[in-house]
Amino acid sequence: MPEASSPSFPYATSPISLRGKNLRSRIYLPAHQPGLAEGGLPGERYVDYHRQRARSGMGMQITGATPVVWSEVWADGLTLVNVDDRIIPGYRTLARAVHDEGGLMLAQLAHVGAMETSGDTIISSSWERSELTWRMSREATAEELATITELYRAAARRCREGDLDGIEVTMAHGMLLASFLSPAMNRRTDAFGGDLEGRTLFPRNVVAAVRDAMGESAIIGVRLSGDEMIEDGIDGGEAAAIAKRLVATGLIDYVSVTAGSNTRKLARVDHWPPTPLPSPPSGIYRARSETRWTYPSRRSGASRAWRWPRRSWRPAMPISSEWCGRTSPIRACCPRAWRMRRRRCAPASAPMSASTRSSTTRP
Fold first, then answer.
1. Helix or strand or coil: residue 290?
2. What Cα–Cα distance (Å) separates residue 43 from each residue in 58, 61, 68, 78?
3. Who has greater pLDDT, 89 or 309?
4. Is the pTM of this model over 0.85?
5. 3-class DSSP assignment, residue 165
């Protein structure tokens, strides 16, 4: 990877060590879904996708959110599913391809929780209705939470046997673990609700199970929402407190910060910027404010400073009829929400033309 040219990021291409594993740079590929899996397993196209990214010099790469229990959300087979040992050979091929290029490969594990669309796995920390699926999730019982913890442990074991370098546990976007952290979603009165200690109990149990299955040499990280973009949800201060409590366990090595909630329409749209990003970016998005906090490193004892967005990047330009075209940021993120907004913005007396109808279908 070429040396960083900007003085704003002097350490971007410098190596860093996590759990004795060397990251050749501090630029990494966050978890995302390329849609290249074959029957829920890493096939040739999926492996080649990550091989090419590793060849570019990435320090670390992470698979998209991989459910530990079968989910209709990922039933199309184009995303990875870690529910049985069939995925282990694919993990080994994936890890070998990335290692040969000098990179590190992690898997992100997830339980979709309130994002689920059907079946008896639509559970959350409390009774909750998703604005996207219009499904009501029920409150998970303590017995179910114990079972799910063991599912994470089993999935982590497959990652270890698949020669992956570590695991990222997603606790963001309104999924099951996120629902326990969120003050807006967690209304429980038992040990898994209430104050910060209670709301982080189930996520901490999951992280402990994953660490136990992966061993001390594996990299373990978590993904959190720095701002859920919903009323009474997680904001920057709350996110910092959650992160510090999780880091205090000594079980995790890094925190990945994202934003939004996939159980609310606008919160889902707002946290996905349009692709490609309209130019200039500074005219579309703005930073609100930051919260700074420090925590002691578990290994060195030195104080490390982190900056968390109190409010994440938000569209500064209002959605209007001017934006209801093929460059609409809503359309780029969520075609269904874009079509709804387009109809809302269009004049009631103006019939939709054939060309306009065709533009509402994603190419």
1. strand
2. 21, 17, 19, 10
3. 89
4. no
5. coil
